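in:
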């Protein structure tokens, strides 16, 4: 493992444009459950068709609203871990780093990453069924109806979290940026995603087609592991800080020379 992390650090040090693609496993060590892991994943306990589709919301808006409020409470109680800070550190160490995340928890931003593309939206933002966006929970405070109604005068549409549910299109500008970055990168660091949800799972193929170096961090092989030139098998909170520390330290050859002196 030490050798693999050193090799990955060498690759990153030479990287001009890095995309860090993250999924639910990135936030697991902060205390936020993943989706598809057997037993502990959210979809093992909850039905995604009832809770993460527009049809599910229209069938039972109160149930879906309350589930997201429960998850908002979970997220609000969590902090970024060492892996999130290591990703933010990479942004300071390398010329161009963009974080493309499927997570809605805002933890990359909380850790100090500045260029973050939130593919599936954010649990910190709310919109109404008619698409009026940009609200926070504070804007809805004082309303007694569940879910609350759109604060825009004359609208009254049901409010929902500004996240992307199954069967919904991703924001075209957001997906366009993620695609363009993946088509232009010379390395992609994939962390904590099973790689089954499209279109996010298609992004590494753009990088692979242009022979960008693909590095994956995941304790369990994913649908994307075969694309990876370097597979770092382990949790984000352990692997990423070691990786960022080696990138900061300088080239492997330099370290060996120092050791020999
Ligand atoms: C660790 C770790 C540790 C554990 N460290 N790692 C083409 C083919 C087939 C289907 C489709 C297709 N195109 C579109 C679809 C339909 C659908 C889809 O992909 N379905 C698949 C399930 C088959 N996609 C969509 O509907 C998307 N929309 C779309 O494509 O629009 C166009 C369209 C419309 C209609 C028809 C066709 C096309 C929208 C997808 C939206 C996904 N939304 C969710 C919920 C977001 C809000 C919320 O959070 O509530 O997004 S679902 C859920 O899955 C969430 C996640 O972002 C997403 C991805 O999951 P992720 O992050 O990979 O988590 P897990 O749990 O799967 O994996 C965790 C990983 O972490 C594991 O590998 C662990 O090993 C690892 N791990 N501990 C590092 N410590």
């Amino acid at each position: 493992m030490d050798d693999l992390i050193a090799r990955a650090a060498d690759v990153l040090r030479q990287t001009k444009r890095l995309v860090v693609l993250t999924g639910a496993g990135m936030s697991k060590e902060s205390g936020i459950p993943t989706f598809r892991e057997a037993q502990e994943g959210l979809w093992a306990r909850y039905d995604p068709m009832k809770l993460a589709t527009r049809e599910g919301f229209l069938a039972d808006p109160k149930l879906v609203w309350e589930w997201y409020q429960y998850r908002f409470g979970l997220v609000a109680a969590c902090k970024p871990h060492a892996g999130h800070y290591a990703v933010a550190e990479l942004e300071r160490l390398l010329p161009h780093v963009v974080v493309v995340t499927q997570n809605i928890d805002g933890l990359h931003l909380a850790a100090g990453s500045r260029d973050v593309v939130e593919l599936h939206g954010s649990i910190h933002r709310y919109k109404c069924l008619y698409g009026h966006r940009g609200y926070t929970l504070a804007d809805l405070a004082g309303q007694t109806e569940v879910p609350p109604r759109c604060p825009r005068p004359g609208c009254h549409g049901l409010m929902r979290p500004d996240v992307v549910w199954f069967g919904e299109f991703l924001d075209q500008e957001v997906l366009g940026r993620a695609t363009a970055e993946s088509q232009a990168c010379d390395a992609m660091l994939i962390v904590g995603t099973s790689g089954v949800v499209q279109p996010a799972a298609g992004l590494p193929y753009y990088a692979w087609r242009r022979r960008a170096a693909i590095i994956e961090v995941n304790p369990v092989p994913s649908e994307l592991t075969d694309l990876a030139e370097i597979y770092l098998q382990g949790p984000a909170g352990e692997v990423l800080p070691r990786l960022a520390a080696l990138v900061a330290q300088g080239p492997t050859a330099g370290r060996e020379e120092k050791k020999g002196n």
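note: Residues 23-25, 28-29, 34-37, 41, 52, 102, 104, 120, 163-169, 191-194, 196-199, 217-220, 222, 235-236 surround BJW (CB under 6 Å).
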